[in-house]
Amino acid sequence: MPISLEERYARQVxxxxxxxxxxxxLAAARVAxxxxxxxxxxxxxxxxxxGAGVVRLIDRDYVEPGNLHRQLLFDEAxxxxxxxxxxxxxxxxxxxxxAVQVEPVVTxxxxxxxxxxxxGFHLFMDxxxxxxxxxxxxxxxxxxxxxxxxxxxxxxxxxxMNIRPGQNACLSCIWPEPxxxxxxxxxxAGILNSAAAAIASIGATEALKLLTGCEGEMRGTVLSLDLxxxxxxxxxxxxxxxxxxxxxxxxxxxxxxxxTPVTLCGRNSVQVHERNQELDLMEIETRxxxxxxxxRNEFVLKFCRESYEITLFRDGRAVIKGxxxxxxxxxxxxxxxxx
Length: 339
Ligand SMILES: [Zn+2]
Known about the structure:
Layout: H1 5-8, H2 10-13, H3 19-27, E1 30-34, H4 38-50, E2 54-59, H5 76-80, H6 85-96, E3 101-106, H7 114-118, E4 123-126, H8 131-144, E5 148-154, E6 157-163, H9 171-174, H10 186-189, H11 193-211, E7 221-226, E8 232-236, E9 262-263, E10 269-272, H12 281-288, E11 293-296, E12 300-305, E13 308-313, E14 318-321, H13 326-336
Helix pairs in contact: 4-11
The structure holds zinc ion (ZN).
Protein backbone atom coordinates (compact mmCIF):
# COMPACT_ATOMS: atom_id res chain seq x y z
CA MET A 1 0.00 0.00 0.00
CA PRO A 2 1.55 3.33 -1.00
CA ILE A 3 1.69 5.86 1.81
CA SER A 4 -0.69 8.76 1.24
CA LEU A 5 0.85 12.21 1.11
CA GLU A 6 -1.54 13.38 3.85
CA GLU A 7 -0.23 10.70 6.17
CA ARG A 8 3.44 11.11 5.26
CA TYR A 9 3.63 14.87 5.78
CA ALA A 10 0.96 15.24 8.49
CA ARG A 11 3.29 16.58 11.22
CA GLN A 12 5.06 18.94 8.84
CA VAL A 13 1.83 20.40 7.45
CA UNK A 14 0.69 21.00 11.04
CA UNK A 15 3.58 23.43 11.48
CA UNK A 16 1.76 26.72 10.71
CA UNK A 17 4.37 28.49 8.54
CA UNK A 18 4.35 25.52 6.14
CA UNK A 19 0.75 24.28 6.07
CA UNK A 20 -0.84 22.60 3.05
CA UNK A 21 0.08 25.43 0.68
CA UNK A 22 3.75 25.29 1.69
CA UNK A 23 3.82 21.52 1.30
CA UNK A 24 2.42 21.83 -2.22
CA UNK A 25 5.02 24.41 -3.14
CA LEU A 26 7.74 22.13 -1.79
CA ALA A 27 6.47 19.27 -3.95
CA ALA A 28 7.00 21.44 -7.04
CA ALA A 29 10.56 22.41 -6.03
CA ARG A 30 13.73 21.22 -7.75
CA VAL A 31 16.86 21.20 -5.56
CA ALA A 32 20.39 20.27 -6.59
CA UNK A 33 22.77 19.15 -3.84
CA UNK A 34 26.44 19.39 -4.78
CA UNK A 35 28.49 16.96 -2.71
CA UNK A 36 27.11 14.07 -0.73
CA UNK A 37 29.48 13.89 2.23
CA UNK A 38 28.83 14.80 5.86
CA UNK A 39 26.74 17.94 5.25
CA UNK A 40 25.32 16.87 1.87
CA UNK A 41 24.06 13.56 3.28
CA UNK A 42 22.10 15.30 6.01
CA UNK A 43 20.74 18.02 3.73
CA UNK A 44 19.66 15.38 1.20
CA UNK A 45 18.02 13.21 3.82
CA UNK A 46 16.09 16.12 5.35
CA UNK A 47 14.89 17.56 2.02
CA UNK A 48 13.89 14.21 0.54
CA UNK A 49 12.00 13.21 3.69
CA UNK A 50 10.39 16.67 3.83
CA GLY A 51 9.03 16.16 0.31
CA ALA A 52 10.96 18.33 -2.15
CA GLY A 53 9.77 17.44 -5.66
CA VAL A 54 13.07 16.67 -7.38
CA VAL A 55 16.41 16.25 -5.60
CA ARG A 56 19.52 15.89 -7.76
CA LEU A 57 22.60 14.54 -5.96
CA ILE A 58 25.92 15.34 -7.62
CA ASP A 59 29.04 13.71 -6.19
CA ARG A 60 32.39 12.65 -7.64
CA ASP A 61 33.53 10.36 -4.84
CA TYR A 62 32.98 6.81 -3.58
CA VAL A 63 32.16 5.54 -0.08
CA GLU A 64 35.12 4.60 2.15
CA PRO A 65 35.21 3.23 5.72
CA GLY A 66 36.53 6.58 7.01
CA ASN A 67 33.30 8.28 5.84
CA LEU A 68 30.93 6.22 7.96
CA HIS A 69 31.26 8.10 11.24
CA ARG A 70 29.69 11.27 9.80
CA GLN A 71 28.10 10.55 6.41
CA LEU A 72 24.76 9.35 7.64
CA LEU A 73 23.37 7.93 4.40
CA PHE A 74 26.03 5.21 4.00
CA ASP A 75 26.64 1.84 5.61
CA GLU A 76 29.44 -0.72 5.77
CA ALA A 77 28.24 -2.57 2.67
CA UNK A 78 28.47 0.67 0.62
CA UNK A 79 32.09 1.11 1.76
CA UNK A 80 32.99 -2.54 1.05
CA UNK A 81 31.65 -2.18 -2.48
CA UNK A 82 33.20 1.29 -2.91
CA UNK A 83 29.88 2.48 -4.31
CA UNK A 84 29.80 6.03 -5.67
CA UNK A 85 28.31 8.23 -2.96
CA UNK A 86 25.63 9.60 -5.28
CA UNK A 87 24.47 6.07 -6.13
CA UNK A 88 24.49 4.81 -2.52
CA UNK A 89 22.71 7.95 -1.31
CA UNK A 90 20.18 7.75 -4.14
CA UNK A 91 19.26 4.17 -3.22
CA UNK A 92 18.85 4.96 0.47
CA UNK A 93 16.77 8.05 -0.21
CA UNK A 94 14.55 6.40 -2.80
CA UNK A 95 13.60 3.82 -0.17
CA UNK A 96 12.86 6.60 2.35
CA UNK A 97 10.46 8.53 0.12
CA UNK A 98 9.25 7.21 -3.23
CA ALA A 99 7.19 10.36 -3.73
CA VAL A 100 10.39 12.32 -4.44
CA GLN A 101 12.30 12.08 -7.71
CA VAL A 102 15.88 11.47 -6.62
CA GLU A 103 18.49 11.90 -9.36
CA PRO A 104 22.01 10.63 -8.55
CA VAL A 105 24.78 11.95 -10.82
CA VAL A 106 28.31 10.55 -10.45
CA THR A 107 30.53 13.32 -11.70
CA UNK A 108 32.82 16.17 -10.75
CA UNK A 109 30.92 19.47 -11.09
CA UNK A 110 33.12 21.72 -13.25
CA UNK A 111 32.71 24.78 -15.46
CA UNK A 112 32.27 22.57 -18.51
CA UNK A 113 29.22 20.70 -17.16
CA UNK A 114 27.63 23.07 -14.62
CA UNK A 115 25.07 24.54 -17.06
CA UNK A 116 23.84 21.08 -18.03
CA UNK A 117 23.70 19.82 -14.45
CA UNK A 118 22.14 22.81 -12.64
CA UNK A 119 19.85 24.39 -15.24
CA GLY A 120 16.19 24.35 -14.25
CA PHE A 121 16.79 23.96 -10.49
CA HIS A 122 15.36 26.44 -7.97
CA LEU A 123 18.04 26.09 -5.32
CA PHE A 124 21.58 24.74 -5.00
CA MET A 125 22.80 23.29 -1.71
CA ASP A 126 26.49 23.23 -0.90
CA UNK A 127 27.59 19.83 0.35
CA UNK A 128 31.13 20.21 -0.97
CA UNK A 129 34.39 20.20 0.93
CA UNK A 130 36.29 22.70 -1.20
CA UNK A 131 36.25 26.34 -2.23
CA UNK A 132 37.00 25.68 -5.88
CA UNK A 133 33.54 24.18 -6.31
CA UNK A 134 31.89 26.78 -4.07
CA UNK A 135 33.18 29.68 -6.21
CA UNK A 136 32.00 27.83 -9.28
CA UNK A 137 28.50 27.45 -7.77
CA UNK A 138 28.55 31.10 -6.64
CA UNK A 139 29.39 32.35 -10.15
CA UNK A 140 26.71 30.22 -11.76
CA UNK A 141 24.08 31.11 -9.12
CA UNK A 142 24.70 34.86 -9.40
CA UNK A 143 24.80 34.72 -13.21
CA UNK A 144 21.49 32.86 -13.34
CA UNK A 145 19.87 34.63 -10.36
CA UNK A 146 19.29 31.36 -8.46
CA UNK A 147 19.79 31.12 -4.68
CA UNK A 148 22.30 28.80 -3.05
CA UNK A 149 23.12 27.93 0.54
CA UNK A 150 26.71 27.63 1.75
CA UNK A 151 27.36 25.01 4.45
CA UNK A 152 30.80 24.10 5.75
CA UNK A 153 31.98 22.18 8.80
CA UNK A 154 35.38 21.37 10.25
CA UNK A 155 36.43 20.31 13.76
CA UNK A 156 33.51 21.08 16.06
CA UNK A 157 32.38 24.16 14.08
CA UNK A 158 30.16 24.89 11.15
CA UNK A 159 29.36 27.97 9.08
CA UNK A 160 26.40 28.63 6.84
CA MET A 161 25.00 31.51 4.81
CA ASN A 162 22.19 32.05 2.33
CA ILE A 163 23.16 33.61 -0.97
CA ARG A 164 20.18 35.13 -2.74
CA PRO A 165 21.50 36.99 -5.78
CA GLY A 166 20.36 40.61 -5.80
CA GLN A 167 19.12 40.39 -2.19
CA ASN A 168 22.20 39.82 -0.09
CA ALA A 169 25.95 39.33 -0.20
CA CYS A 170 27.43 36.61 -2.37
CA LEU A 171 30.47 34.50 -1.53
CA SER A 172 32.84 36.88 -3.35
CA CYS A 173 31.41 39.93 -1.53
CA ILE A 174 32.74 38.40 1.68
CA TRP A 175 35.84 36.58 0.43
CA PRO A 176 36.85 38.09 -2.95
CA GLU A 177 39.44 35.38 -3.52
CA PRO A 178 39.27 31.69 -2.70
CA UNK A 179 41.30 31.07 0.47
CA UNK A 180 44.76 29.86 -0.44
CA UNK A 181 46.51 27.51 1.94
CA UNK A 182 46.55 27.55 5.72
CA UNK A 183 42.90 26.61 5.94
CA UNK A 184 41.88 23.86 8.32
CA UNK A 185 40.19 20.92 6.64
CA UNK A 186 38.56 17.75 7.93
CA UNK A 187 41.87 16.00 7.23
CA UNK A 188 43.94 18.31 9.40
CA ALA A 189 41.51 19.27 12.16
CA GLY A 190 39.16 16.28 12.11
CA ILE A 191 35.41 16.73 12.28
CA LEU A 192 32.60 15.95 14.68
CA ASN A 193 29.61 14.32 13.06
CA SER A 194 27.34 16.51 15.21
CA ALA A 195 28.93 19.72 13.86
CA ALA A 196 28.30 18.68 10.26
CA ALA A 197 24.77 17.52 11.06
CA ALA A 198 23.93 20.74 12.93
CA ILE A 199 25.09 23.09 10.20
CA ALA A 200 23.40 20.95 7.53
CA SER A 201 20.15 21.07 9.52
CA ILE A 202 20.28 24.85 9.66
CA GLY A 203 20.95 25.00 5.92
CA ALA A 204 18.10 22.59 5.20
CA THR A 205 15.73 24.70 7.35
CA GLU A 206 16.61 27.80 5.32
CA ALA A 207 15.96 25.74 2.18
CA LEU A 208 12.55 24.78 3.54
CA LYS A 209 11.70 28.45 4.14
CA LEU A 210 12.63 29.31 0.56
CA LEU A 211 10.81 26.39 -1.01
CA THR A 212 7.60 26.65 1.01
CA GLY A 213 7.06 30.34 0.27
CA CYS A 214 8.54 31.75 3.51
CA GLU A 215 11.46 33.40 1.74
CA GLY A 216 11.04 36.60 3.77
CA GLU A 217 11.99 34.71 6.93
CA MET A 218 15.39 33.61 5.63
CA ARG A 219 18.50 34.84 7.45
CA GLY A 220 20.68 37.49 5.81
CA THR A 221 23.72 36.68 7.93
CA VAL A 222 26.78 34.49 8.10
CA LEU A 223 26.19 32.14 11.02
CA SER A 224 28.90 30.11 12.77
CA LEU A 225 28.40 27.61 15.55
CA ASP A 226 30.84 25.65 17.68
CA LEU A 227 29.06 22.58 18.97
CA UNK A 228 31.82 21.81 21.49
CA UNK A 229 32.12 25.21 23.21
CA UNK A 230 28.60 26.40 22.51
CA UNK A 231 29.90 29.62 20.93
CA UNK A 232 27.76 31.23 18.29
CA UNK A 233 28.58 34.14 16.01
CA UNK A 234 26.23 35.80 13.57
CA UNK A 235 27.30 38.66 11.32
CA UNK A 236 25.17 40.60 8.90
CA UNK A 237 27.16 41.23 5.75
CA UNK A 238 26.19 43.83 3.17
CA UNK A 239 26.71 43.42 -0.55
CA UNK A 240 30.01 44.88 -1.73
CA UNK A 241 29.21 47.27 -4.64
CA UNK A 242 32.63 46.52 -6.12
CA UNK A 243 32.15 42.74 -5.86
CA UNK A 244 33.65 41.13 -8.93
CA UNK A 245 30.88 38.55 -9.14
CA UNK A 246 27.58 40.22 -8.21
CA UNK A 247 28.76 43.83 -8.82
CA UNK A 248 30.86 43.62 -11.97
CA UNK A 249 29.33 40.34 -13.19
CA UNK A 250 32.72 38.85 -13.94
CA UNK A 251 32.13 35.09 -13.83
CA UNK A 252 35.69 33.87 -14.25
CA UNK A 253 35.12 30.57 -12.43
CA UNK A 254 32.69 29.59 -15.20
CA UNK A 255 35.40 29.78 -17.85
CA UNK A 256 36.25 26.20 -18.79
CA UNK A 257 40.00 26.02 -18.30
CA UNK A 258 42.47 23.31 -18.99
CA UNK A 259 42.35 21.72 -15.58
CA THR A 260 45.27 19.95 -14.02
CA PRO A 261 44.77 16.91 -11.80
CA VAL A 262 43.25 17.93 -8.48
CA THR A 263 44.59 16.79 -5.14
CA LEU A 264 41.71 15.63 -3.00
CA CYS A 265 41.07 16.74 0.60
CA GLY A 266 44.51 15.70 2.04
CA ARG A 267 44.14 11.96 1.69
CA ASN A 268 47.43 11.13 0.02
CA SER A 269 45.55 10.87 -3.23
CA VAL A 270 45.17 12.71 -6.51
CA GLN A 271 42.20 12.87 -8.85
CA VAL A 272 43.06 12.62 -12.53
CA HIS A 273 40.59 13.59 -15.20
CA GLU A 274 42.53 13.47 -18.41
CA ARG A 275 39.59 12.51 -20.51
CA ASN A 276 35.89 12.88 -20.48
CA GLN A 277 34.42 9.85 -22.14
CA GLU A 278 32.69 6.67 -21.07
CA LEU A 279 35.04 3.81 -20.28
CA ASP A 280 34.29 0.11 -20.65
CA LEU A 281 35.22 -1.03 -17.13
CA MET A 282 34.75 -4.72 -18.00
CA GLU A 283 37.30 -4.50 -20.81
CA ILE A 284 39.74 -2.64 -18.55
CA GLU A 285 39.31 -5.26 -15.83
CA THR A 286 40.39 -7.99 -18.27
CA ARG A 287 43.36 -5.95 -19.38
CA UNK A 288 44.55 -5.11 -15.85
CA UNK A 289 44.09 -8.51 -14.21
CA UNK A 290 47.64 -9.75 -15.03
CA UNK A 291 49.14 -6.60 -13.48
CA UNK A 292 47.63 -6.51 -9.99
CA UNK A 293 44.43 -7.06 -8.04
CA UNK A 294 41.24 -5.79 -9.65
CA UNK A 295 37.72 -5.40 -8.22
CA ARG A 296 34.83 -3.99 -10.16
CA ASN A 297 31.16 -3.17 -9.76
CA GLU A 298 28.73 -1.51 -12.12
CA PHE A 299 30.11 1.96 -11.37
CA VAL A 300 33.79 1.78 -10.38
CA LEU A 301 36.87 -0.36 -10.80
CA LYS A 302 39.58 -0.62 -8.16
CA PHE A 303 43.08 -1.64 -9.24
CA CYS A 304 45.85 -2.21 -6.68
CA ARG A 305 49.48 -2.54 -7.58
CA GLU A 306 52.47 -2.08 -5.26
CA SER A 307 51.62 0.79 -2.91
CA TYR A 308 49.14 2.42 -5.30
CA GLU A 309 45.39 2.02 -5.55
CA ILE A 310 43.58 3.37 -8.61
CA THR A 311 39.82 3.83 -8.42
CA LEU A 312 38.43 4.38 -11.88
CA PHE A 313 34.99 5.79 -12.66
CA ARG A 314 33.02 5.18 -15.83
CA ASP A 315 33.41 8.81 -16.92
CA GLY A 316 37.19 8.33 -17.13
CA ARG A 317 38.10 9.97 -13.83
CA ALA A 318 40.48 8.17 -11.52
CA VAL A 319 41.39 8.69 -7.88
CA ILE A 320 44.94 7.51 -7.32
CA LYS A 321 45.88 6.75 -3.73
CA GLY A 322 49.42 6.43 -2.49
CA UNK A 323 50.81 9.66 -3.93
CA UNK A 324 50.29 13.41 -3.90
CA UNK A 325 52.63 13.85 -6.87
CA UNK A 326 50.66 14.91 -9.94
CA UNK A 327 53.35 13.58 -12.28
CA UNK A 328 53.35 10.13 -10.68
CA UNK A 329 49.55 10.05 -10.78
CA UNK A 330 49.47 11.07 -14.43
CA UNK A 331 52.05 8.48 -15.37
CA UNK A 332 50.20 5.68 -13.52
CA UNK A 333 47.03 6.71 -15.32
CA UNK A 334 48.74 6.71 -18.68
CA UNK A 335 50.39 3.35 -18.03
CA UNK A 336 47.38 1.40 -16.78
CA UNK A 337 44.30 3.18 -18.10
CA UNK A 338 45.69 4.80 -21.21
CA UNK A 339 45.31 8.35 -22.45
ZN1 LIG B 1 29.04 39.61 -4.47
